[in-house]
Amino acid sequence: MTFHAIFDALGNFANLQMWLVMTAGTVIGLVFGLVPGISGMLALTLMLPFLFFMTPMVALPLIMTVMAIQFQGGAVSAILLNVPGTPGSSATLIDGFPMTQRGEGGRALGAAQTASALANILTAFVALAVIPLILPMIVALRSADMVFVILLGLTFIGVLASGSMIKGLLSGGVGLLISFIGFHPTTGAERFIFGYLYLYDGIPLVPLMLGLFAIPEMVALAATGGNIAESRATINGMADVWQGVRDVFRHKRLVLQSQLIGFLVGALPGVGASPATFIAYGHAKQSSKDPESFGKGNVEGVIAAESANNACESGALLTTLALGIPGSPIMALLLGVMTMHGLIPGPDMLTTNLSLSITLIWVIAISGVLGIAICLPLAPRLSRIAFIPGSLLAPIVLVLALTGAFSYHNRYEDVVVAVIFGLVGMVMRRFDYNRPALLLGFILGAIFEKFFFIALHADGPYFFVRPISLGLILAIVAVIAIGPVKGLMKRVKLARGEVKA
Questions:
Q1: Which of 109, 114, 313, 431 is the most exposed place for a label (fewest CB within 10 A)?
Q2: Burial 359-395 (b: 16+ CB within 10 A, else e)
């Protein structure tokens, strides 16, 4: 990394357009994060048709702002309503809602927003600091190694981001198969086209994502009936909010430790924020002087969870840019937008496009400041958004989703694709299959083929006989085997009577 790239990135913020884009992204991220069931993933899928017509320097910062801010919105409904606005806010409600029940909702919200903002700011600087350490590793990677890096990312999201390893791996594999529809990139052979001219270019990304995520969630929301949230919890003024802000600075060590946990877990391909928040929450409970109060309204639990989930984004972004593999499921959407704009995820992002990558890291830091500046004063009013009736919200979002699918290329076939994958998404949701894994497999399919055939032509059929490739293969086997091995060891201990069932 050069100082020239850092100053080039900072120069991008001299443009008023950048600040307008980030402000808009902050508001969108807060609103979509606050409403349960309307997460940042859905917000970005609805925005995809519009992002296609933007320049990369507008589209990518907008995405990063929404990604970085969504957890701050999700904390509001988690604390006040006992309903996480995003999956990464699930651990926040464990102590946040009990605080609201005893009249300390404002304190919990102030602590959550401050911890979130600090996580965005501090871990962005950590990401900048470790880029020089990553560059030598990137230079050492060849096409053969990237084949197995991609497979490792699919394995991570399939195994770690789903309750069932088999279902997760199957979902990723199906995504890979869907990506093969169309012309072969090297030979030009037709694959799975069945005589339809529409399929010659493959399945379009935006209709697939809109169908896979937006339609199932809205149908489920409409089916439940009533309002999104029934509780009418309120904040007891700004005095409580400022008390929560002071709590964060009183627990500086916990904040830093939770941020480190979030950053490291976020850097693992395909893991996401949810595991990091519960790991940080468990650490906070174990290291607390009053562990018995956790789950009953301890502000340390809120601080730990919100520090971890926001820190994940910096680690996930670094993995996504450096390896071309999403560090979290929502980063798969970032890969899709980068591909739409002709940017190749992977080593080029830390060499040729280093200035753009650093700009995105700065966006995370500045988003933390914008988020807390907007969310703290408006917190009492923002909470009202969570009471929109599901019967009103679902039709609006469904219409936007199908309109977005059509506007992608102005083809009715794209709407049909969105509906088909909406049905696929509903089935996957019903039977607990991993939709982010399918999306990741679809996005990485073309990249996988590219590196596979380059490696095959350059090094022959034994292209994998390299130290780095062999190490990655062992890592893939280890990730798949760790669950069954743990289960076997537990059964052995049960048989010996060493542990209780």
A1: 431
A2: bbbbbbbbbbebbbebbbeebbebbebbebebeebbe
